[in-house]
Write a structure and sequence with these properties.
- Helix 2 links the parallel strand 2 (30-36) and strand 3.
- A five-stranded parallel sheet has the order 3-2-1-4-5, sandwiched between helices.
- The chain is of the alpha/beta class.
- The protein has helices at 15-27, 47-61, 75-81, 94-110, 130-138, 149-161, and strands at residues 3-8, 30-36, 66-71, 86-91, 115-120.
- It starts with a strand and ends in a 5-residue tail after the last helix.
- The chain is built from six helices and five strands, in the order E-H-E-H-E-H-E-H-E-H-H.
- The relative contact order is 0.20.
- Helices cover 45% and strands 19% of the residues.
């Protein structure tokens, strides 16, 4: 069984993330979307909210071979705990490649059984990031073209509640 892990912060999940999830689900027998908990990063959405958003979006897409879990620690160790030998990473631009390449080498050093598969995003999502969605949403802009439709209202409502202090 080919098992892969797609790690990320997904703060919040975007259509770009969903594109990578959908394509990876076709490539592997099982895909675990791993919501990272990083104590050094201040996330807008809690791990529970991010997991819930992903589960709802994946269910709406009808992806039956995809599960979602939160994790903390090293992704190479987490992948080993799932008997996964592939990490899936999305690339939007060449600027992503350098840091992703460095992480792939480090993960391979930590766990020699894990490889990284890079999926290049569809051109329509090359500019899209969670931070862009957060910024637009904080200021009350329409995020419905950037996030799964089934989540747009909930994400927008939550982002409006977290307006930055000026």
């Amino acid at each position: 069984m080919k098992t892969a892990v797609y790690p990320g912060s997904f703060d919040p999940v975007t259509l770009g993330h969903m594109d990578i999830i959908h394509r990876a689900a076709l490539m592997f027998d099982h895909l675990t979307v791993a919501v990272g908990i990083n104590i050094n990063k201040r996330a807008t959405f809690s791990p529970e909210e991010r997991v819930d958003f992903l589960k709802r979006a994946i269910a709406a897409e009808g992806l039956h071979n995809v599960t979602v879990e939160a994790y903390h620690g090293l992704i190479a160790d987490y992948a080993a705990s799932l008997n996964a030998n592939t990490l899936v990473r999305g690339l939007r631009a060449m600027s992503d490649f350098e840091s992703e390449f460095q992480m792939a080498l480090a993960n391979r050093r930590i766990n020699q059984q894990v490889d990284t598969a890079f999926l290049v995003t569809n051109v329509e999502y090359m500019y899209l990031s969670s931070s862009l969605v957060r910024e637009i949403g904080h200021y009350g802009g329409d995020i419905s073209e950037f996030v799964p439709q089934c989540l747009a209202e909930d994400i927008a409502k939550r982002l409006k509640q977290n307006k930055p202090n000026i």
